[in-house]
Amino acid sequence: MTERVNRTLKPLISIYAQQRPNSWDNEIQKLAFAIRTAVNDTTGETPAFMMFGRDPRGPLDSLIGETTEEAQPTTSEHRQIQECKNNLINNLRWAYNIVREHSEIEKIKQKENYDQHTTQRQYNEGDLVWVASPAAYIGENSMGGKLQPHYYGPCRLIKQLSPNTFTVCRLSDNVNVGATNTDRIKPYIELNRNNRGTTTTTKDQSAHEKQTETLINNQEARLSDLYLRNVKRNQPPTGNNSSQRRVSDRQRRVPMRYIEN
């Protein structure tokens, strides 16, 4: 079979190569289409019809419209062949309709499942957004790592092309990213670093430091009081006050790691 096809294909290539010897390999698909749509002398049908049950439509078919009716078969063998062709065409059309209906039903189900896990956000022209960064591939190897950022930005929405599509421009290098669906973007939130926020943070830190210092002083006072009581309790009784042991006024500072937060 392959050798027979090559015997047909080689003359076509040689004829085409006479005019374009350096680009004939780019036109192999056109030559193959000519072979698939040509009537075979042995089968009486085109290879495309034998494979798919219908003849492919070319540019000329689109210009002249539908083909005319074929001549009615005259012999019983021709009638049997024509009946087999009609049955094959009807079966294929029935199968195509079933597949088309099933495909539409599955599309609706897939859309419902997708919408259940999607939050619809409203965007306007001029908004700042993050844009999802797809992983680049070289062959079958992905160039993106787990630690690589999944979004880049900030980007600005330049023009709304449809309810869910915007033209996006990256602000860092002023590059037009192109049409982007809202599924691949998320809002960009700017941090407001004003003096009021800084003052509030400073006040909170000062209050926390004062509270910690007060807690430390209270703990030190309690430990000092307990220490003095233990010293007086363990002091031996004596009548001579001059021989009594002098109690130090020094206070012990408790390490920070022992103080409960």
Automatic annotation (TrEMBL):
Stretches for region Disordered: 192-212, 231-261
The name this protein goes by in its record: Integrase catalytic domain-containing protein
An MF annotation (GO) of this entry: nucleic acid binding
InterPro entries with a match to the protein in the record: Retrovirus_Pol_polyprotein, RNaseH_sf
